[in-house]
Amino acid sequence: xxxxxxxxxxxxxxxxxxxxxxxxxxxxxxxxxxxxxxxxxxxxxxxxxxxxxxxxxxxxxxxxxxxxxxxxxxxxxxxx
Length: 80
Fold this sequence. Notes:
Layout: H1 6-9, H2 17-20, E1 25-30, H3 42-50, E2 54-59, H4 64-67, H5 69-79
């Protein structure tokens, strides 16, 4: 599975005013035994934090919907 590099370099443009007002959250998944700062997506999580997004962190690989579904659901249910 490959992902376009442009997803990391091109900013999205929210032209709909309602979309700009949506709340956002960021889930940083950290491989077991690693520190958050060692994660590939740590810098992205810090950008979300600077934007005021609600931050979550969980011990799992990048696909918690497969590797840690129970933990992911529990975390999401606490929010909603």
